[in-house]
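# nightly structure sweep
# worker-07 picked up a monomer target from the shared queue
# config: single-sequence mode, recycle default, output format = structure tokens
# input follows
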Amino acid sequence: MAGNYKRAALGLIGFVPEVNQGYSPFEQSSKSSGNTTTSLVIEVTSSTSALYPAGLADATARQNFLADYFNGLSVYLPDSEEHAYITDTAYVEASSALTLTITPALAAARDSATFYIFGRLPATSDFTVGKENLTRLDFRRGSWTPPSNLKGLSQVEGSLETELLGLETPISGAGATVTLDRYSHLLSAVGTRSAHVADTVQAGSTTTTINLSTSEANVFSAGDAVLIEGQVAYVTEATESPTGDTIVIAPALSATPTAAEPFHAGEKFTPDDTGQLSLTMVELIDDQLIQHKGCIINVSLASQFSQTLTMTVEATGEDFQLTDSFTIAGNIPLASKNSTPPAPVKFVQGRAFFGSTELDCSNIDFNYNIERSVVRDTGDSDTAQQSVFVTGRAPSAGVSFRNKAKTFKDTTEANGTQARLLLQFGNEAGSTVAIIGNAQPSDPATYGDNEGISTYDATFAFVDDEVSTTYNKAFFYRF
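# output follows
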């Protein structure tokens, strides 16, 4: 860096999922032997706080927990200036070895090498970190000058705004499976991830009933979602039958799907009520590295039709660490391990439905509204004397849509109607995401104006259905 200044626009933004909240796995070192050109081996014992899942019952549970844990993230080796992607993560407790399989191959095996694990994001950031000011007693003194303050615990609060991709390795065709990528890990901090195989449309399908390949229905259940010829729909019923498996979907497709056309399943994220995954958020500002540890996040999406979709991640953390003279030579690719990754999601195609009613949307703002609280007590004296927990979640969506009739105001809204709200952004595999959940209009919709056309500006609250035997949530899908 030339001159004694740091250029705010240079650097990178990323994150790494934590094994134990508050302990950053970002910087690691390979073992002195046993590494290859396609693997980095880390020694992990019970004293390795950043990587050893101590809260689990036995070795088998710990090995299963770490299996695939960092798949889809990047590694960077500063000494050799090499970059690769993690394709497999395997822990063998008997040998104290956590092995990261990587691609492309390194030029040589790297023993005793420092390296970094993270997922890079195309993002901007705004974090505030520091030590809390503790105000002194306003005791009697001989001057109006206040007494000096004391310093307390760390404060970490901030946000980043990023572009969003669908699956970085899109899947289609019967039996294809979903590959973990960096957004898989990021969204896992909101909820539990599940993934489903894809299939091809069989002859005789309709706009609401899709005939599947043999024995494919058992991988679907009500509440899953599929992308068929550019349209997202959710599964209301999956049936296995000797005469052919089927799924029933809603809302209906705009036309009968083409036989033999691949359709896409993908990732589904179910918001967690407890046990949320914590992240270390990483900022590199020129040559100064900042790690925000123990972060619990909230996620929101926003886009006007015809524009790029943006995702905002708000984070509350437990502690921070700064490092000067930290450099990364060369470019850390934003792409996944694909040589031709999909483009970020743009809201130039998509669709929105409330129940069976299509909404002609001009603007959508979705927010999980995950409430985070910092709990401080002596129980966390081994870390930062504080822990971040989720204490509430009230998802909502602000939707501006064309005013076609009075029905929305005097029937749907007036009756507090509940229905499935579907919000789809994009229409191509690799560049499509969707939010689906049981919702109802909340505050009275106002009348808006979209270039002279009357709109309803409505807020939908995602709510539980008291007659259902399962909890309704706002589910996040990537295709």
